[in-house]
Amino acid sequence: MEVLNPIQVTAHGMDPAKLKSEYGHQLSFCGGIDQRHVLPNGTLEDVEAEVRRRILEMGQGGGYILAPTHDIQADTSVENVLALFDAADRWGVYPLAGA
């Protein structure tokens, strides 16, 4: 196994920071953006905070693929989907080697 997918933050034992700390040297991670509560019910600010939190928890040193926990559901507004992409663009840039 090379990538753990999904990171379902609402599931027992799926603390993103703990997973990264314990297994980040062995695995990459995909997911972690809560599509059960934050994406369908959160404000634009909630979505941005969720994205930023996951990047800070799991992005250090690479090995994190930002994505919703599972498929984005029909009860998620277009605005929140766009907020996810905007926040990923804002917070998800890795420094380039030698830059």
Question: What attributes does this structure have?
Answer:
99 residues; alpha/beta; three-stranded parallel sheet; 3 strands
Describe the 3D structure.
With 99 residues, this protein is α/β, with parallel strands linked by helices. The chain has one domain. The chain has four helices and three strands, in the order βαβααβα. The protein has helices at 16-23, 38-41, 44-58, 78-91; strands spanning 3-7, 28-33, 64-68. It has a three-stranded parallel beta sheet with strand order 1-2-3. β1, α1 and β2 form a beta-alpha-beta unit. α3 runs parallel beside α4. 27% of the residues are buried. The model has no long low-confidence stretch (mean pLDDT 92).
How are the secondary structure elements laid out?
Layout: E1 3-7, H1 16-23, E2 28-33, H2 38-41, H3 44-58, E3 64-68, H4 78-91
Parallel strand pairs: 1-2, 2-3
Helix pairs in contact: 3-4
Tally of helical segments:
4
Shape: globular
Characterize the quaternary organization of these chains: single chain
Structural class: alpha/beta
Low-confidence stretches: none
Helix content range: 40-55%
